[in-house]
Design a protein that fits this description.
It is a single chain. A hairpin with a 6-residue loop joins β1 and β2. α1 runs antiparallel to α4, α1 runs antiparallel to α5 and α2 crosses α3. The longest helix has about 70 residues. With about 210 residues, the protein is an alpha+beta fold. Helices cover about 65% and strands about 15% of the residues. The N and C termini lie far apart (about 90 Å).
Amino acid sequence: MNVLKNEKGSALFYLLWILTTVIVICAIIVNITRVYVVKQQASSAAELSAVAATGDILTATEEAIKEFDAEMISRLEEGEIYIPLWETITDRVAIHQSNGHSDQEAYIKAYNEILPGSLSNPLLKGFFTVKFTVDPALGTKMYQTVSRIVKANEANEEHLEIKISTDTYRVEVKTDATFESITDGKILARFLKDIPQEGYGPTLTYLERVLE
């Protein structure tokens, strides 16, 4: 009888050990999966916000061109003709749209093709300088756009970094999302970790002339 009691005790010990091991393995698998999910969360926030902030730059570009056109028209003497730069841009945009590009892609292509040469005009360059370096409105708008998307994707606004790269001429966003381990607090220790990710908007080569 003593032998049987010992065997039952050993079996119970091994059963508990196996159950504990299974629980630990399951917890590890769940946490690894959550790390991937949180990483994707931060990545999506960075990528989507970088593209959206690029839209703010495109809007500022349109405003600068239209202000330049208005100034040029106001300076016309009687009999003089001026073809608005915005008209030239939209004609090129229509060509790219007809080739299957999205609206944003079409405007980016048109700007990249036309503006580098046009920005040799000091007056046009002056309007762009005001929009991109003097007036803080663009920077504020970009931050608001990025912040809204980051929060919507449950990433952290606290460590947010936004810049227009002077090397690649695109919007670059850095953010992170917080991973919190799932645990009972006994077998596995609870911990928090911020998982950083970066996102990039499309290249706006005409910004080389704007930011020089």
